[in-house]
Predict the 3D structure of the following.
Amino acid sequence: MSHPESAEAATGAGAGTSAGAPAGIDPRAPRFAAAITTVLLLVVVVLSVAGASVAAWALLAVLSAIFLWGAVAGVKRHPFGAIYRAWVRPRLAPPTELEDPRPPTFAQLVGFIVTIAGVVLGLLGFEYAVAIAAGVAFIAAFLNAVFDYCLGCQIYLLLVRARLVQRA
């Protein structure tokens, strides 16, 4: 698992337990959100390749807005997280540990940057921009959903270690 151990290593304490650190989140919630995102990004790629470029662009724009929501409001307020808390979480045992929300929130920012690049370049007429951006984001979301490997979280941790991002 990449999230909890890495978050603890980056903060020097258990997730959400150090002074000033945000309260922890259920580590299964970002994976659930990544699974939904994976499916939707695959739809964007298929639509784009099939010639439905306007529909692909529109769906990528919506996904980009959802990434922005997660990056600005935090993963605790993410719409897919709300679905997880309302319908999935009540059916599961409590998590064995909580995760620092900062790396997954940063990962949302990375997702926004990748998808908004595709949206803007697609709007400017670059033919394959939407499919390429959706494909890159798909790979990252797939890795998180299937293997619990969050690329955006790993980038966050590298930036913390390089002292480009503060811990608290």
In short: Helices lie at 3-11, 28-49, 53-73, 79-88, 102-123, 129-147, 151-161. Residues 1-18 have pLDDT under 50 and may be disordered. DSSP finds seven helices and no strands in the chain.
